Fold each of these.
Amino acid sequence: MSSKIKTPLEETVDSARRGFIQKTAAVTAAVTLAPGVILHQAQAKPADEPVSSAQRWGMLIDANKCAEGCTACVDGCNKEHNLEGHGRPETDAQWIRKVSVKNRSTGYSFTLPMMCQHCETAPCVDVCPTGASFKRVDGIVLVDKHICIGCRYCMMACPYKARSFIHEDTDDQMPYAPRGKGTVESCTLCVHRVDKDGEDAVPACAEACINDGHEAIVFGDLKNPNSRISKSLKKYGGTQIRADLGLNPGVRYWGVS
Amino acid sequence: MKKKIHYSTIDGNSVGFYALVAILGLVVAIGLGAAYYMEHHGHWVTGMNNQIVWGMPHVFAIFLIVAASGALNVASIGSVFKKYLYKPLARLSAILAIVLLAGGLMVLVLDLGHPDRLIVAMTYYNFKSIFAWNIYLYTGFFAIVAVYIWTMMDRTVYEHSRKVGIFAFIWRLALTTGTGSIFGFLVAKQHFDAAIMAPMFVIMSFSFGLAIYLLVLLYAYRWTGRPLGDIVVNRLKNLLGVFVAAVLYFVVVKHLTSLYATEHHGVEKFILMDGGIYTFLFWVVQIGLGSILPLVILFTSLSKSRAMIILASILVIIGGMAQIYVILIGGQAYPLVMFPGMEVSSTFFDGVVGQYSPTLPEALLGFGGVAVALLAVTFAIKVLRFLPESLADNVIDPHFVTEKEAG
């Protein structure tokens, strides 16, 4: 049986028709099956609207609630971004890790999750030669994987050891968390969730922590005085790790001194 | 009356010449192969990891880049400071500066996670980054020194050589300042983050660059059978001694300052006492073999022997590599101080000394960069008139009188 070769115009018409049918089907399905979800999405920032400096996203982590030996946040992050390691801890990526700290003089010890602190004046952004390491106006520090040349100067500059270099090929990437061998990556503050749900967003680490019954991580808008994070910080204050560097990180802690 | 200096290309048709070119070419090819291997598999096949992100290739690259600006010094002394004895040495100085920078940059670029994105590095700039400035400083250096060579070689533009030489001198100071500031501007690491890094790198460049220059000069004249008198060699070896002492001074000042500040006691103890390989490299290789021994050789009667001057130059280079290794790798190996006064541990090697063992491909890439520089200078002196036909004492010094003439 011979198949007819399509002209470019027919191809275009076909693909347009296919796209129309797909969109119609998607909208119909969404309206019929999940009206609640659609209603919720309508309240969030549309995808084509730029992020705003009216918000500054951040996190408040209560080390008093962070359980020793619990790695729910780490597991949640790894699952969310499919950060499957290669069994080589020296070179495998870690966007978030549990750090155990013990005061040498008092013996007081605590544990906390450590990740990109989303600094206001981020050293990684300052030193990046191409601008691949950048801060969004809403405070989220990210890496543009398209223009990262893999020089790793940002890793030298980060006081929190928050970044990982991708040392080998990665498989099964998530569409919202592209990764590439030879580039640097770190916690995105689950930017895909933030862009979708705004102030209602819960990053994967915080979600896992809640699901595990600890609720040690609170996400929110540091610029909104009525947000839970702002109210908590106003009432009880918060600690910045390496506050002496004056970087004004977006992640604050309780119970770490 | 002072004799006129004649420059000429080397014959470059001996078995020895072709053997040298073949060996250097092979080392370059192996270095490129090593780079391809590392890029193809990813950096996990190297000794580098998320703790030590800059490894052996960076040691070579930084050494070559620092030495490049230092190699230009000989020309600068002639042009800028009007020391006429150095004028005949200037052309080789300038071409050596260019090829060393080329070798260093090759290593640096081939160790990137994405060397294929070199065009991105040339088109996207973040001007707050000293790295971005360095891209301009490096490319500008090539252009300025090339023009400098032109003004020295072409009689029609020779009158401009001093002006261009001064500009090149200022540029090279800026370049090495930029290289030192790569470390000086890093607030996170205890061993970096110091303004002294910039001038220390400048003085390191004087020393490393001159050591390489001396070796290239001595071997070029020995292998081509051209006369090279003691006046030139002694002047250069004395200058090398002064530079080695100056580097030592900066090292002492840096460590004394750090030792005074309690917050740096941890990292100083690590480098100077407990750092294992880094402590060994610091005291034995950098200070003992790379500084004290060359000073003893250069400033005693030992330096009457050319072989000993060659040995001293080689020791300065080895000591310089050790110095950069200790600064770069040692500075990274010492754990970040996130919680001062606290014990820290994690699955991401917080609170423990970073482990790094250079792998063969990393070293091969580094040697590839060295070979690129040496191959290029070998080629350059064959095709253009960089070397004076004679640097004998009676050619270089108008007042030189042989023992025979003196009766």
Note: The two ends of chain B are 19 Å apart (CA to CA).
Amino acid sequence: MTLLNAIDPWLAGPRSAELLFPTLALPVLGLLLAPLLGARWARLLALASLVVGLVLALACTAALVAADAPLVYALGGWAAPLGVELRLDGPAALMLLLTAVLLLLIGLHAAGEFSVRAAGRRATLAFWTLLLGVWAGLDGLFLGRDLFNLYVAIEVLTFSAVPMVCLKGHAAQFQAAFQYLLFALLGSALYLLGAGLMLGVHGTLDIAQIRVALDAVATHPPDIGGDARAATLAAVALMSTGLLAKTALMPLHLWLPPAHGGAPAPASAVLSALVVKGSFFLLFRLWLDLVPDLPQLHVGLLLGGLGVFAILLGNLMALMQARLKLLVAYSTLAQIGYLFLLFPLASGASGGPAATAALIQVVSHALAKASLFLLAGRILVAFGHDRLPALDGFGRAMPATLLVILMAGLALVGLPPSGGYLVKSLYASAAADLGAWWWPPALELGGLLSAAYLARILSIALSPAPASGTGTGAAAGGGHILRAPITGLAAPALLAVCALLLGLLPPALFSVMDVARPGMGSATAVAGVMLSALTPSGFWRSAGPVLTVALVVVLFHSAGESAWGRRIASIGRGVAGFEGWLRQWRTAGALLLLFLLIQVWTSIG
Amino acid sequence: MNEAQLYGVCGAGLVGIGLYGAILGRSTLRRLLAFNLVGSGVFLIFGAIARRGGLAGGAQSDPVPQALVITGLVVAFAATALAVALLIRLATVAHEAASAAATPGSTDDPSTPATASQGRGERGPGHVGAGHS
């Protein structure tokens, strides 16, 4: 009791906002200390501070719920705009929790792979320091309210994420890392230009103060306020374009497949689950919190259209990949597309059910994708490669791994009660409210394509190994499989189960993300969606098509060569050629500028 | 046109030249330098905004954008250093791989990502040779 009494002022009392300072300071301190302590202690330091960070994130969330209002902490007592203010609202608390949980689980999973004995001093120290750096950047992004501080946070995030790609030191990894860095830097230059324009227009960079100024402009006669409004929207368009490049929304994704496909598995998990979400969260803040009237702007159509493009092309490309890690990376590109349906479907002051859907998608995809990348790493260790055509029958050798892959995959496909199902149905209800019937079919189609690549993995995993022992695949023969310890399955399994059962959480828990966002109503929206999901007819309505597609793919795969197969393969080569063209540097650069112009035009015009 | 506007236009011009170079540049090093040009243009625009804000407030210049430029310079410096370090490592590794390939009996590393196989037009950052020749 005395302990509870002692910490009460922080959890429910007047001092609760002070929790935000250690939440940000802890990863930064760890980042600074890790290189001083050296490779041997960096792992312990990172894991210990992640445990403390998880406790802090839980305490922050508890304090936020108790206060039922945003927590605001001014560093050093200096208020905005000159000082740096940390502000925690519902979505930020959700992201803090997600980051702490995921980094801790991935860290525990990687503790064996990245130890001095297994990976050498250099890679060990680099991995744990960079992990702390990613954490510091993400926490800065979630807590910041000042556009320039957010810029610094996102650069910390990028600079920590880029070297993670090339931890193993292969030439292709360095190339991928350089391409990632240079494209991200172009994005940050555009972002910084936008922030500068914003400062010139409003004289402040604080998101809340700019919002107040914009609301005041709206009451002016149009000939006075119009210029400030247009300049603000141009600045937001610049920042938004920069962030699109960093989020790798297709077709601005040239850096993501080589970077996420080539990094070591735990690093890929961090990059795919969390790092791309950091820049998306900033887009969420910009278009929903800073711009007062997103639903009236046409820019949502552009972002949503690109999202649908990403869902379709990403899933198709995932279906055609020859390497498991690249398959998972392309599936990330498709799942990023789901996030962007938020923008055309947002309604009301705080986004409505579409905002709930986007935040749940961040959580659900992060859990499922971290699990999938860790499992891909497990297969890579066991077989020494991850080329799918040569993995025939790997499910017989590693049945538990296959089971967890299926669970995580089903969460991505969106079967009830997974997070993916919540996302699809919440978007569908948002679209029904707006009368925009054309968005949900794209989501359904995307889910079916995900089911197709999952079925492809399944049929490869269960197919009999080639009879002649050529030594290329022959997984079931078990000759040269490196047995991975079963404990390595704990973290991926936990993540996959969480993703798969996300919808069964009590709906009241989802109301955490509503704090300081009036009218979002996450709890009621989730409860309403789940009510119809668990009836037999509701379940079969989503599961039936998925099972059909899976069956077709399995049959197709087992049928072997056929005229149909050759025809489909030639179409596939065409799509892959188009996607390869999109991934050329010049195409991506030109598209970046094109999207900038369209965003400026659609938001001002 | 007052001086703040002049500097603003110059900054915009620098950003434009830099974007041209960064997107169309042939060698990786050239693209990196072009990015630095974009950064310089942005910082010049910040300077113009400082002057403009200062004149509006009755002072010589507004110190806030100037302070931001200093932070921005540090970030751009760190980014360039990281990119150059990556380029140097890339050149070293590529050089080693080339000399290893010259000796017979060396095999491909299985974990090397083979992205080139499914992206036909993909050339990667490539052309590192132009950077250090």
Note: Strands of chain A lie at 71-74, 85-88.
